[in-house]
Amino acid sequence: MGLGILLFATALSFISVHSNIIGKQILKWINKPTSKEKELTSKINDLKKSQECVSITENFSKYSKIQRQINKIEEELSNSRNERNNLTIQLGFAYGPKVLLGFLLVILSIYYRSTPIITLDNSIDLTPFSFLISYPHGANAVSFHFWILCSSATARLIKLKN
After folding, report:
1. Cα gap 136→134, rounded to integer Å
2. What is residue 1's predicted lDDT score, i.e. its pLDDT?
3. What residues contact 139, with CB distance under 8 A and at least 6 apart?
4. N or C: which terminus of the chain carries fewer CB neighbours within 10 A?
5. Omega into 136 within 30° of 0, i.e. cis?
6. Confidence (pLDDT) at 27
7. What's the N-to-C CA distance of the chain in angstroms?
8. Residue 144 scores a pLDDT above 80
């Protein structure tokens, strides 16, 4: 049972520290342009290409008409993106996993407060830190709290690529 708790606590600590990577991937997937947005973007590009062919000095009215069409489509595209990009959703996926995993670690710390993760041999002496490492257990034990602290600190030192 100790090894299972050890591995679970370590994995949970690493996932908690690097949960922003998970949130970014979910946000990237959510913010992927819809087919309507892709269509509007291609229309804008086509209109800009046709506008480049028209000289502004020689044919101002045609140039302005194309520019008004571009502005109208850009406004429609902006409205479509704003409907989809809700700030609550953005913040929820950015910080939600970190909050949930942190809360889970607190609950597990309370639940496993009396269960040592690792019990060391009596020949190993952890003095002067034995009280800090093994609290609330006896000597030569590593508590769940201390293991979470060490795992989280190690996870913060490891830089993962986004």
Report:
1. 6
2. 53
3. 126, 130
4. N
5. yes
6. 79
7. 34
8. yes
